[in-house]
Every structure is written in structure tokens, then in C-alpha cells.
């Protein structure tokens, strides 16, 4: 069966011309659409991944949990101290006459025995404060073997209370051959301020309370000292052995 198309439509040269036209048309269409496609792609990329960095959070939100600090802090002003006058150093007080005398009696150039003699000579002239201070020095300077020098002060019922207390406290620490006879002598006067203290201490030593019988107390003291003689002085022992 023969084709009804015109003969030129089936000729080779016509087909070549049509093919060339189609190819040319496709090329033109490709060149025309390429810019728009690039633009579209760029727009799509921009929409998905914006090139502009995300804006920071507002300052008020970022710092809402932080204490507010002024931009230009004002330095703190030191407290103003009232201009109160400063106390002036106290001038050294003038020594009392008895203080000067006592100070002179304690001169380093004097021996202990010389100082004791000077203080005892001045003691009657001292006021009460002076007597109290003088006795505090005396009990430190006088040894047991020389206790008889200050022993009369212990029997003075009119002596200041602090003086008697200082002497009695010192007596408790001395050797028994000094302590017991002195307390026995105090007990011979029931009106003495230290009577009860002396009696109680003697009763502890003798393990016996003889009441008001002074003869019995004396006998008890004598027997106690015979049974408990004083130990020889260490210095004297060294001298006897020639050491």
C-alpha cells in the first residue's frame, strides 16, 4: 500500500532539516531556562540555609539572671569618721614616797638579807597598800632559817587582812619546824583573826583536836617534831662531805 504523504516529506534532505531545527530549538530553550533555574536554586538554598547568622538573644533575656551592674560603676566612698580627738598618752604618775623607799630597799646592789632589813625598818611607816606590797617581797626574800625576822608580823592582830592572808599562805608552804610552832603561838590568842585556820591545820598534822587545852597542843607539836625531824640542808651536807 502506498503512502498518502507528499513525497518531499519523506525525502532524506527534508528529514535532516527538521532534525536540525529541533536540535536548534532545544538548545535555545536550554539557554533561556538556565538563568532562571540557577536563580531558583539559589533562592531555594537561601530559604533552606540562610547565610545571615541568627541574631543573638536580646540583652534583657540573656542577662535576666545576672545582677545588674552599672556601665560606669561609681567608686565607693569611704565612711567619714568623725573627727574625734585621740586620747593623749598618760604621763607617768609620780611615785609615792613609800614606793620610792621600797624601790630603794630592793636595789640590785643589796643582798637579800640587806633588803629584808631595810624593808622591815620601813614597814611601820608604810600605808596599808605599802605594807601589803612589802610583805609580798618579804615572804619571797626570807628563807626558813631566817623566818624569825618576819614572824612577828604574823602575830599582829591589827595588821591589814591582806597582810595576814599573805603571811599565812606563805607559812603553809614552809617546813614543819617553822610552820607548827608559829601556828601554836597563834592559837594562844583566840581573838587572833587566824586562830581557826591555825587550829584546823594543827589538828590535821597531829590527827587530834585538843580543843582549848594549849598544853596538850604544845605537847602534841613537840612529839610530832621529834618524830619528824627536819631534813638536813643539802648545802650543809655538801660542805660536810667536802663536795
- Dominant shape: rod-shaped
Structural class label: mainly alpha
Nearest-angstrom radius of gyration?
Answer: 61 Å
Q: What does the average pLDDT come to?
A: 78
Helix-strand sequence: HHHHHHHHHHH
Distance between the termini: 170 Å
Number of helices: 11
Would you count the extended β strands for me?
A: 0
Helix content: 55-70%
Describe the structure.
There is one protein chain. With 243 residues, this protein is mainly α. Helix content is 56%, strand content 0%. It contains eleven helices and no strands. Helix 4 packs antiparallel against helix 5. It is rod-shaped, with a radius of gyration of 61 Å. The relative contact order is 0.04.
Keywords:
single chain; 243 residues; mainly alpha
SSE order and pairing:
Elements: H1 12-48, H2 59-62, H3 97-105, H4 112-122, H5 128-141, H6 151-154, H7 161-172, H8 176-186, H9 195-206, H10 214-227, H11 234-241
Quick recap of the structure?
The chain has about 240 residues and is mostly helical. It has 11 helices and no strands.
Amino acid at each position: 500500500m502506498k503512502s498518502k504523504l507528499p513525497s518531499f516529506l519523506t525525502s532524506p534532505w527534508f528529514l535532516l532539516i527538521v532534525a536540525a531545527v529541533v536540535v536548534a530549538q532545544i538548545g535555545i530553550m536550554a539557554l533561556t531556562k538556565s538563568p532562571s533555574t540557577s536563580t531558583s536554586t539559589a533562592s531555594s538554598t537561601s530559604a533552606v540555609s540562610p547565610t545571615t547568622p541568627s541574631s543573638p538573644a536580646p540583652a534583657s533575656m540573656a542577662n535576666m539572671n545576672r545582677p545588674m551592674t552599672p556601665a560606669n560603676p561609681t567608686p565607693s566612698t569611704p565612711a567619714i569618721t568623725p573627727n574625734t580627738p585621740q586620747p593623749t598618752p598618760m604621763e607617768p604618775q609620780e611615785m609615792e614616797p613609800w614606793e620610792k623607799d621600797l624601790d630603794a630597799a630592793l636595789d640590785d646592789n643589796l643582798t637579800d638579807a640587806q633588803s629584808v632589813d631595810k624593808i622591815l625598818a620601813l614597814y611601820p611607816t608604810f600605808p596599808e597598800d605599802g605594807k601589803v606590797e612589802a610583805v609580798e617581797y618579804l615572804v619571797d626574800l626570807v628563807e626558813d632559817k631566817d623566818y624569825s625576822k618576819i614572824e612577828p608580823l604574823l602575830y599582829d592582830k591589827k595588821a591589814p587582812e591582806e597582810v595576814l592572808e599573805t603571811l599565812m599562805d606563805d607559812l603553809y608552804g614552809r617546813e614543819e619546824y617553822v610552820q607548827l610552832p608559829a601556828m601554836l603561838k597563834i592559837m594562844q590568842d583566840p581573838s587572833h583573826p587566824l586562830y581557826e585556820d591555825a587550829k584546823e591545820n594543827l589538828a590535821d598534822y597531829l590527827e587530834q583536836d585538843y580543843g582549848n587545852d594549849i598544853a596538850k597542843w604544845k605537847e602534841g607539836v613537840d612529839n610530832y617534831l621529834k618524830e619528824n625531824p627536819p631534813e638536813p640542808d643539802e648545802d650543809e651536807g655538801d660542805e660536810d662531805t667536802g663536795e
